[in-house]
Every structure is written in C-alpha cells, then in structure tokens.
Amino acid sequence: MTQEQFSGEVSHTSVMIYQRYLLSFQTNPGNYSNFRAYLISQRWTLYKNLYNERMLEIYARTLAYDKRRVTSIILSGSAKKLTSMGDYIGMPTALNSPDGDMLITAPEIVKTVTKNYWSKLYMQQDMLNVPKPWLLTLSITEVQN
Predict the structure, then answer these.
(1) Do residues 113 and 95 touch, judged by C-beta distance below 8 A?
(2) For the whole model, what pTM was predicted?
(3) Where are the alpha helices (H) located in 81-136, listed in sequence order?
(4) Which residues pair with 96 in a beta bridge?
C-alpha cells in the first residue's frame, strides 16, 4: 500500500490499520524520513514484542511441565525421563539486516537460515553418558546376579 504503483486489493482491516499508522506518522514522524521506513520500524517493534510474548509463554509452559515431571517422579514414576537428550535449538523468528534497520527478505538468506534451523533440529544427537546410581542398588544387583 505504500508503493506508488500498488494496484492490489486489501482487506478492510488492512486499510484501517494503514490509516491508523499513517495518522500516527503524520502526528509524530520521529526520526523517519518517509512513511515506509516508519512502517518497517513499527513492524520490527511488533516482531520484537511478539517474540518476547512467545518466550514468556514458552518459559511458563516449560516451568509447569518440569514441575509435573518432578511430581510424577516423586510419586513413584521413572526418573529416566529426566535425562536431557541435547541442546535447545531456538526457532528463528525474524532476520535483521546487518545495520539492524530492516527485515531481510532476500530469498536465499531466508532459505539458508531455514535450512540450518531444520538441519540442527532433526540432526541425530549422541546419547549422553550420565551416571545411573539407581542401577547400583541392592535390588538391581540381586536381579542382575
């Protein structure tokens, strides 16, 4: 909508949001030379807020899940599930240009980052060699003998 030769159709909601941001830019342009730069900065801010909200939700869910796992073990569950199998691989949410002003939309860069993410996520991980003191208990050694 900010391009001069734009001839596509947009939804009513998009027009309303466009007008809201245009009014905001006209009343307080800040350090932005044009409306497009202002919109890009607003999109960057929204992505940053979305990322923070997602991380808060992920953290809260992880904390609740860990509490349930520990409670399950305390109530005579198996402790095998507590063994960590690998490192956390974060999802790429947005790609910034080197100067940090704009989001990168170059297809090759997006393709490379996406490929690297999925490769790391589904790469076979080595089994951890962690101590298992429960295998040295009297009942286990009796069964083994």
Answers:
(1) yes
(2) 0.47
(3) 107-121
(4) 103
